[in-house]
Amino acid sequence: MSAALVGIGATEFSKESGRSELRLAVEAVSAALAEAGLKPSDVDGLVSFTMDSNAEIAVARELGVPELTFFSRINYGGGAACATVQHAAMAVETGIAEVVVCYRAFNERSGHRFGQFSSAAATNPTSSGVDNSWSYPMGLGTPASTVAMVARRYMHEFGATSEDFGRVAVTMRDHAATNPKAWFHRRPITLEEHQASRWITEPLHLLDCCQESDGAVAIVVTSLARARDLAQPAAVIAGAAQGSSADQYVMTSYFRDEMSRLPEMGLVGRQLWRQAGFGPDEIDVAVLYDHFTPYVLIQLEELGFCGRGEAKEFIADGRIGLTGTLPLNPHGGQLGEAYIHGMNGIAEAVRQIRGNSVNQVRGVENVVVTAGTGVPTSGLVLTRDR
Amino acid sequence: MTAPKGISAVAREMAAQGECTPRVARDPVNEAMINNWTEALGDDNPAYPAVAPPAMVQVWTMRGLHPNPDDDPLGRMSEVLDAEGYTSVVATNSEQTYHRHLKPGERVAVTSRLEEVVGPKQTALGEGWFVTTRSIWRVGDEPVAEMMFRILKFRPKPVARAAVTPMVSKDTEFFWVGTKIGELRIQKCAACGALRHPPGPMCPRCNALDPTFIVSGGLGEVYSYVVHHHPQVPGKRTPFVIALVELEEGVRMLGELLDVDPEQVKIGMPVRVRFVPSGEFTLPAWEVR
Does residue B3 register a pLDDT over 60? Predict the structure, then answer.
């Protein structure tokens, strides 16, 4: 692809923003444009999640964007994150739009909390509502419980333990501890604290679950040619992919032959490596969607960083720490920094490519980013401009 | 949980401590703030801004956006009540007495004491405690204004939440009709014979639009399971076990695993179906066999 990420913007990450979601959206978009050296009048495309409550026209109106030639929404919760950039890049590559901003803004902690049991999700008169009728009435209707069901099977098949999941949480909180923007700045945890944290849905402890956050992130995408004239070094899109697999459900793909996998992420990975022309060995930093720790392990396997069932050994020796061979989520991820539906991870990938993250990994050339897991998902490979 | 007696005891102790540390106004009484206030309220009394409107008294000692921790008794008592589950709040009374006008240049300080905490009271909002504080604003040692402030801290009434009932479509109706008459029905493609759960209109294997069903023997094994603790789920008492069961016919199905010690559940455990009425529906659930 010849499109690039040229601006990132965000609000503070909090538990109660005290502002409307629309205001959060326009603050983040505005910051991203300013950083890129662009004006609202340069924007001709906007992309967000179907779950976002802020219409593209409302965002455009507030910013004074005069004309939009491209506006689109991606479905399936956090699985949309990297796909917003992919759709923006496709619009740029086809000439449909020139400057596209991807945004996600919510008061997810002080407003509608995703971690609660949503009776509404089970009563939608849609195919998704009917899908949910096989789980919600039985009491399985929170994100944590749907992941716990897969995690239990994964533990059974490969001998992974709660401590293995805990090592992911501890690493994320270590990284957040030195990130002043992170909610858990200066608040690392130990494995013992992970183990002692209360059960949410066994086998998941509280500290296996990401935070709930208020905040917004925006990402500006334009052509590589234009990117080279802008204020920031370009993060070039080397791969951008979406994936949905056989017998796909949202969070409850329990009816496939192999339940303890994320084949849709495998599908995203295969596309990314093919597009980028290299594989996991060339990746310097991984930003993997970490709403729940078990899916971080399964993603490492699906993306080919290690074999099936081997993730627990792969992460055991500090490999995913800042000084490891595959630093994972240097910003602290959604477990440590904030839960902005994966968009804050894309922003961190851009900083790592630019070389200006607070937890900068040395000599970063290539970063892989993934979006929400357990749902149809997406991914990106970003590289330095060379 | 502290017993109700505990709350009263804490309150008496806090009341006996008298006035808290004075909070000194960030800025002296000033014309700029007076002008902003009177303009916003549309008060064109010519006495202002030579003196400040008396009702502005709280303005001068506001905590600001990033308050320092203090020993204000209202905050401390609220924390005690929060911890006891009286987490909601509504202000019920605010009575201010003004001793004299304030003039630009004067710097006030406010101090508060806990007057009384009364409860538990049954109110329309729920069970709660009335917390009354008295605040005095002073310039130097001279009291210039006072306020009696009362809030109700209450335990929000639990919202009655019925169990979630399934969304039924024409493609899935047969299943729910079945559970109602004690049949666990599995969709079967009339063309190729493939069994399938959850059901749908088209056979993914042969694309036939001719679904029928068989009645399962209702026997299977736990394929995976969870023990749900948090958050609360409508119609369920936590903790409870949800099992994904692989039926002998080869399809998987979710249901609550009933009457079981969560510690004893294992993958591979043999179970059988049990039908549980829930509102106008009957849900499939499991019991250990």
Answer: no
| Domain annotation covers residue B216 | yes
* The total number of structural domains that make up chain A: 1
- B104 and B228 share a domain? no
B5: alpha, beta or left, given left = phi > 0 and alpha = psi -120 to 50?
alpha
Q: Is residue A205 part of a domain?
A: no
Using CB atoms, which residue from B236, B251, B284 is nearest to A139? B236
Q: What is the CATH number of the domain that holds A92?
A: 3.40.47.10
Cβ pair A138:B285 closer than 8 A? yes
Q: Do A199 and B227 touch (CB under 8 A)?
A: yes
Q: Is residue A256 part of a domain?
A: yes
Pairwise CA distance, residues B255 & A133, whole Å: 11
Residue of chain A whose alpha carbon sits nearest to that of B170: A130
Predicted complex ipTM: 0.96
Tell me the pLDDT band of B4, cut-offs 50, 70 and 90.
low
What average pLDDT score do residues B17-25 get? 91
Residues of B in contact with A122 (CB under 8 A): 164, 166-167
Task: Please check whether residues B138 and B179 belong to one and the same domain.
Answer: no
- Using CA coordinates, name the residue in chain B closest to A203: B226
Q: What is the rounded distance in angstroms from the CA atom of residue B33 to the CA atom of residue B134?
A: 25
**Angstroms from B198 CA to nearest CA on chain A:** 7
- Tell me the angle at which helices A293-302 and A162-177 cross, rounded to the nearest 10 degrees: 100
Q: Residue range A259-275: average pLDDT?
A: 98
A44: which residues sit within 8 A by CB, 6+ positions away? A65, A67, A68, A69, A70, A97, A98, A99, A100
The torsion angles phi and psi of B136, rounded to 5 degrees, stand at: -125, 130
Tell me: the pLDDT tens digits for A16-37? 999 999 999 999 999 999 999 9
In the predicted structure, residue B2 carries a pLDDT above the cut 60: no
Through-space distance between the first and last CA atoms of chain B, rounded to whole angstroms: 40
**Nearest Cβ partner of B252 from A142, A201, A255?**
A255
Q: Are strands B23-24 and A214-223 parallel, antiparallel or unpaired?
A: unpaired
Could you list the residue range(s) of the whole structural domain that residue B222 is in?
173-288
Interchain proximity B267–A139, CB inside 8 Å: no
| CB-defined contacts A:B, below 8 A | 121
- Annotated catalytic residues of A are 289, 339
Rounded Cα distance between B263 and A147, Å, is 19
- Residue B140 sits in the same domain as residue B177: no
- The nearest CA of chain A is from the CA of B277 a distance in Å of 11
| Low-confidence winner among A258-262, A363-367, B4-8, B149-153 (lowest mean pLDDT) | B4-8
The reply to whether B250 touches chain A by the CB within 8 Å rule is no
CATH number for the domain spanning B53: value is: 3.10.129.10
> By residue range, what is the domain housing residue A339?
3-111+213-384
Q: Are residues B128 and B224 in the same domain?
A: no
Assign B1 a pLDDT band (cuts: 50, 70, 90). Answer: very low
| CA A236 distance to own-chain centroid | 18
Best mutation target, B174, B185, B230, B266, to test chain A (most A CBs within 10 A):
B230
Distance from CA of B235 to the nearest CA of A (A): 8
Q: Which pLDDT tens digit goes with each residue over A292-323?
A: 999 999 999 999 999 999 999 999 999 999 99
